[in-house]
């Protein structure tokens, strides 16, 4: 993989060696500063996930091994049976590796370790009859981040390797929505949209923010059709490229998930972390600097009237 400096100089890899410029959507150069920020977020989410959002995974350490029914990938690979020792070793090795990787040191070695350990953690999680679909984009992000190499928060270089990695994550985020809609129709038929899917969810898990919708005829059925339409239209997000459009897309997607959480207390946090890869993080320092230096502002955040004399 190669990189292209943001200054417009001939394409170079991240070590500065000349390289042939690749063209096309998959290899549009991405600033390495964006990778550095997203990588920190992605790796710091690991302990949050292990200890808070999916703390139930470590409970499998106490489950008899005969209940372990590995996923297909777990049958193809020589993965260990999750005994108590295996579960606890994977758990702590994963957390320690993620915290080390979040520092940006040894990005390929530590990043690969995080991906492999989290992959095993997910096999342990999903091999007891429950398979979640909100983790594939996050898992893919962990898989591609080590391919980029070193990146720092203030790194002004652009990299085609980074562009490829972020494109892969974006496509996976898109497919998560599109295939969710396909699965709804494949397994539920069009009755999913015309039936009482959301009504049942709100009756079971509704909150003060959603209970009122049960009293509005046709509202939830319309919401089901709207959800299907938006999910089937997910490939359109691949056309989004400008910074403002990316920010608007992220706000829309995260707003959707916040709305779902407010209504039925379901949140896809790993998927939301993957969505953050779309944000042009490299623009944050410049935006903050412009905010601090806007007219009428002083270093102490106090406005100085125009024409006022400076203190002695």
TrEMBL record:
A Pfam family assignment: HTTM
Cell compartment(s), UniProt: Endomembrane system
TM annotation in the entry: 36-59, 79-102, 109-129, 135-151, 163-183, 219-240, 247-269
Domain HTTM-like stretches: 27-273
GO cellular component, one term: endomembrane system
Keyword Membrane included in the entry's annotation: yes
Keywords, alphabetical: Membrane, Transmembrane, Transmembrane helix
Domain of life where this protein originates: Bacteria
Region feature (Disordered): 290-312
Membrane topology field: Multi-pass membrane protein
Name of the featured protein: HTTM-like domain-containing protein
Source organism: Geodermatophilus ruber
């Amino acid at each position: 993989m190669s990189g292209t400096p943001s200054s417009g100089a001939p394409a170079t890899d991240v070590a500065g060696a000349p390289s042939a410029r690749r063209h096309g959507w998959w290899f549009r150069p991405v600033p390495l500063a964006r990778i550095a920020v997203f990588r920190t977020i992605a790796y710091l989410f690991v302990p949050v996930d292990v200890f808070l959002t999916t703390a139930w995974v470590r409970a499998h350490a106490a489950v008899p091994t005969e209940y372990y029914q590995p996923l297909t990938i777990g049958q193809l690979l020589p993965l260990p049976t999750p005994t108590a020792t295996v579960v606890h070793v994977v758990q702590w090795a994963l957390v320690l590796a993620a915290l080390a990787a979040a520092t940006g040191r040894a990005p390929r070695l530590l990043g690969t370790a995080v991906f492999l350990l989290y992959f095993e953690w997910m096999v342990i999680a999903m091999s007891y009859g429950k398979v979640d679909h909100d983790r594939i984009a996050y898992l893919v992000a962990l898989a591609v981040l080590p391919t980029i190499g070193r990146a720092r928060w203030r790194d002004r270089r652009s990299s085609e390797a980074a562009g490829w990695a972020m494109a892969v994550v974006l496509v996976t985020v898109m497919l998560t929505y599109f295939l969710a809609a396909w699965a709804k129709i494949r397994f539920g038929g069009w009755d999913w949209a015309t039936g009482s899917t959301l009504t049942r969810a709100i009756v079971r898990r509704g909150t003060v923010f959603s209970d009122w919708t049960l009293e509005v005829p046709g509202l939830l059925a319309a919401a089901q059709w709207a959800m299907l339409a938006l999910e089937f239209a997910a490939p359109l997000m691949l056309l989004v490229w400008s910074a403002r459009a990316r920010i608007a897309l992220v706000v829309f997607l995260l707003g959707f998930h916040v709305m779902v959480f407010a209504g039925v207390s379901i949140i896809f946090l790993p998927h939301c972390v993957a969505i953050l890869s779309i944000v042009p993080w490299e623009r944050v320092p410049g935006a903050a600097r412009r905010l601090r230096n806007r007219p009428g502002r002083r270093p102490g955040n106090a406005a100085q009237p125009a024409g006022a004399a400076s203190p002695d």
